[in-house]
Specification:
This protein is of the alpha+beta class and about 170 residues long. Helices cover about 25% and strands about 35% of the residues. A hairpin with a 7-residue loop joins strand 6 and strand 7. Helix 3 packs across helix 4. The chain is globular, with a radius of gyration of 16 Å. The chain starts with 8 loop residues before the first strand and ends with a helix.
């Protein structure tokens, strides 16, 4: 497998610095929305959640990070189905002093092609070194899952540390 190309870009939204990625799907917007919100669809490429989103929060469990990864708490800040989702994560779920990350998902459809724009805040430029390759990896797994490609063929070893320098430069001062 060739080394993947980093696709994240630095963007500012509402006074926060984000890393932002885009992926395009030859699928209706409702189908892509399901791929990023339904537990069974998420489980194919990243993880799954439990709880009732109507309560404004869910517990999210990564499935491909190892066995001892704690669940994260996701607060749903805004949901405009099937176009926009804003969430704040708290990791680890049961910590007294959890880390918080802001996530933004925007979907746009034109002529049966849906573009997903995904972003995570990067309050510390050094964070981009891990966040960048990690999300490139998971979003590529999503593309594989949604296009019928073997998700296990997407190998994290080809993403990091090869991409780390790009992301450090993208977010450097």
């Amino acid at each position: 497998m060739n080394s993947p190309t980093p696709t994240g870009r630095r963007r500012d939204h509402g006074g926060e610095t984000y890393c932002e990625w885009q992926r395009t799907f030859h699928a209706p917007i409702d189908d892509v929305w399901a791929a990023v919100t339904e537990p069974e669809r998420l489980a194919r490429w990243i993880g799954t959640w439990t709880g009732d989103p109507a309560d404004g929060h869910v517990k999210f469990q990564m499935l491909f990070e190892g066995d001892d990864i704690p669940a994260e708490h996701f607060r749903i800040d805004e949901c405009v189905r099937p176009r926009r989702l804003r969430m704040t994560t708290s990791m680890p779920y049961d910590s007294k002093d959890p880390e918080h990350w802001l996530l933004r998902l925007d979907l746009d459809e034109s002529d049966g092609v849906t573009t997903l724009t995904f972003a995570q805040d990067v309050p510390d430029p050094k964070m981009a070194e891990g966040v960048g390759p990690g999300w490139d990896y998971y979003l590529d797994r999503m593309v594989a899952a949604e296009t019928g490609v073997d998700v296990t063929a997407v190998d994290f070893a080809s993403y990091s540390p090869e991409m780390s320098g790009y992301y450090l430069a993208e977010f450097g001062d």
